[in-house]
What does this fold into?
Amino acid sequence: MGNVRYAAPADKDFMTDYKLLYAAHSRYEKDWNSCPHAHYFAELFYVADGEGKFCVEEETFPIMRGDLVVVNPNIVHTEYSSRKNPLEYIVLGVERLCFQMKDHRQYLLFHNRMSREENQEIELYFRRIQREMSEEKEWYGQVCQHLLEVLIIQLMRRTGERAELLPTERVSRECSRVRRFIDFNYQDEITLETLAGIAGLNKYYFSHMFAKYYGQPPMSYLNQRRLITGQELLSSTDMSVAAIASQCGFSSQSYFSQSFKKYCGMTPAEYRKKSHGEKSV
It folds into this structure.
């Protein structure tokens, strides 16, 4: 008889402090009222049946049975149901969860991206959480929390995107809006005054609030966003360091190199050589 034992990992690199706020089951009826709205928490929206449309800020796309939409906090969204084939869906509200997408979108759409088996597995998590929340059996809160954590890991595995743990305190919509602006426009010339204007706040108060929510001042976050993009370009392209510096929004190659070495502990050339060496192993 064979015997195989697998040791559990010593450390965990996944934070388990996401908080499930609610599970809601909805079915379209004649009194349905859809209006754009936003929350301080993320929503996981699973289409159990029917079809319709989903709107995220300025974008609208069709949804149908088996689709899953994950919307980040403070993002305006809503759904519209088909009258011929009414929507039925399960929504999970999750506090402190925010997906950091590589293309800086603020939502994930699983539409025809999962096999039948994967779809059944995802649906199982949603329905089991919904059932646990409705029946309220002993320890149902712990069961739901663990199911949620496994669900989030499965979503990260299938997309390659990472889930971030947000601060305990609710992030203001103004700071969230500025952070999205930085993520989309980091290559442009941006000043603290520009960001404070977008937030509609005094620049000193805004800088204090941004640091309170995200752990660093807005200009430090901007610099970090540029350097992370620099890392990606150095490891995945043959662009010159000067071209990368310009594309990331740095005023000069020397300033980029200086900032990069301070951030990564090595020069851009050393980082590129190291990352190319690791890929070839």
Q: What stands out?
A: The mean pLDDT is 84. Residues 116-135 form the longest helix (20 residues).
